[in-house]
Amino acid sequence: MMGALFDLHIMSAPIKVAIRADAGAKIGMGHFGRASAVARALAASGDTEIVLVTTITGASHAGAFFPDQTKILVLSPEEGDPALAMQILRRQIPHPDVLLLDQYGAVAQWEVECAKSETNLVVLDDLDAARDADIIVRPHGVTAGGNGNIVLAGPAYLPLSDHVVQLAHGTQPNSQKRPRLNICFGGSDPTGETAKALEAVANLDQLDVDVVIGPGAQIDPALVDATARLPHIKLHRQPSQKELAALMATADLALGAGGVMLWERLCLGIPSLVIATAENQLPQIESMLSVGAVRYLGYHSELDAASIVEGILALADDEALRQKLSDLGPKIVDGRGALRLAAWIKALALEFRDVQAEDAQDLLDWRTDDRNWQHNWDGSEKPAFDAHVAWLSGRLADPNCIFRILTLDDDPVGVVRFDLSDCGAAAYLSIYLVPAWHGQRIGLPVYYAAERALRQSHPAVTRIVSRIHKANAASERLHRDAGFEVWASYERTDWLDAVKLLG
Q: Where are the domains of the chain?
């Protein structure tokens, strides 16, 4: 960043975000995997202060997941109650802007405590337990159950490791004739599926097999030693996140559980055989099974090595099915979920105010800055001040015009206008950034904050409509990340039309 942009950027206080998540042999590493993906997306813009609230066991694993600058607040077993944990957190961060909760149990209590402390709450809600959080994230797709808040449903909002995302869509097909199988049941494998899989693949020498043994996995050493002597099997002990992602990217098919790594395999386009190792995995397994994106072998307690062998051979021998699954996965999971959640978290820290007549000069300066005006639909000359004032007066007098300035610590960052039509059911969007904030990764948070305010003030709106200049790649990406469907405009060949339906 350069000059005035940097100076303005650091004038605003950092957005303070707390993350409540745990990791360990019993619960695995999945919560850390996805919570840290959001933390890294937040840290990339450099304007966020992050503190991880976790247990002693979780703290021992944090360094392998979270950005180096992450503060860690360690809770003793007696301090796990949400009320006490929030008191301790507020001593470290007096006024946290947002709490990201990725933890099973006590969700309702966290909702109460965050409301008391006026802290925005985002819940990664696998078990459909959240009701009153500001943002409820359900990657498995359930939209019901919120009390008038924002429910983000579907894999588009699933945060994945940036190591996986960097490799997604760029993997090369295996040039070897022998299919390559990846076996991984996470960091802890509490139900012992890795040992079962080792027995299953011992005689499958028509495959090359990579077996990942996580740091918490408990496997009979004799079985490990016997497997290590088999030429078609390679064991990988406690690989880093980066190493694991690279290993998965070489696979032609995979066998694993239905947790976070299910989504990673889909993003990488790896045909996946899935074993449910916990009840909380069933909703997302069922959601992907319903669209034909995975092959489900069953619940772990119902499976033996013979049934695993049968499933592996069926998928390994069906090249057409593998290709179908490989093509479908990245279409379902595009890998930008962490970016979208980080933008929503930032959006919760933004405020807005209605545009006033006194804003005329600022609005004219911002609107006609070349970075904003170059993609103007009208294509007309920049207006003189008097003409602009007349236009603004008309907008402010129109009851169907919702005209707002988005702010961060009272600094204007963006301008959003919604013009209502169809009896208030449709809102036509105009959005631009205050010029000094271009390049600060604030565009998507500005849109999200404006949409949230629109939902609250005008709940009758069912769709948002927008236009995008084809040359404005940043705006097109913003609209797609915000959930708009985008297609070529029927009116003008150099423009795109975009629509988002509000659930």
A: 3-160, 166-332, 350-501
pLDDT of residue 174: 55
Residue 142, φ and ψ in degrees, nearest 5: -75, 125
CA 111 – CA 101 distance, rounded (Å): 10
Q: What is the pLDDT of residue 1?
A: 28
Which residue from 369, 454, 476 is spatially nearest to 412, judged by alpha carbons? 369
The CB density around residue 493, as the number of other CB atoms within 10 Å, is 8
Tokens of 281: 């995995």
Query: How far is CA 235 from each of CA 7, 182, 227, 248, rounded to the nearest angstrom?
Result: 51, 10, 8, 13
User: How high is the pLDDT of residue 172?
Assistant: 55
How far apart are the C-alpha atoms of 178 and 184, rounded to whole Å? Answer: 19
- DSSP line for 241-290: HHHHHHHHTT-SEEEEESSHHHHHHHHHT--EEEEE-SGGGHHHHHHHHH
What's the rounded Cα separation, in Å, for the pair 82 and 415? Answer: 37
Class of domain 166-332: alpha beta
d(CA 430, CA 404) in angstroms, rounded, equals: 11
Print burial letters for 201-233: b (CB count within 10 Å at least 16), e (below 16).
bbebeebbbbbbbbebbebeeeebeebeebeeb
Which positions of the chain have pLDDT values less than 50? 1-11
Neighbours of 240 (CB within 10 A): 10
Residue 98 pairs with which residues in a beta bridge? 17, 120
The neighbour count for residue 417, using CB atoms within 10 Å, is 17
pLDDT at res. 170: 63
Give dist(CA 298, CA 301) in Å, integer.
Answer: 8
Please choose, from the candidates 206, 205, 212, the residue with its C-alpha nearest in 3D space to the C-alpha of residue 255.
Answer: 212
Topology at the third CATH level for domain 3-160? Rossmann fold (3.40.50)
Cα separation, 94 vs 91, whole angstroms: 6
359: nearest Cα among 403, 402, 397, 399? 403
Gap between the Cα atoms of 50 and 47, Å rounded: 10
Distance in angstroms (rounded) separating the CA atoms of residues 271 and 220: 29
Q: Which of 223, 166, 232 is nearest to 194 (CA)?
A: 223
What is the residue type of 351?
A: E
Q: Domain 350-501 adopts which CATH fold? A: Aminopeptidase (3.40.630)
* Identical topology for domains 3-160 and 166-332: yes
- Alpha-carbon distance 163 to 191, whole Å? 27
CA atoms within 13 A on the CB side of 225: 3
For the record, the structure tokens of 280 come out as: 């909380």
Residues 6+ apart with CB under 8 A from 220: 195
460: three-class secondary structure by DSSP: coil
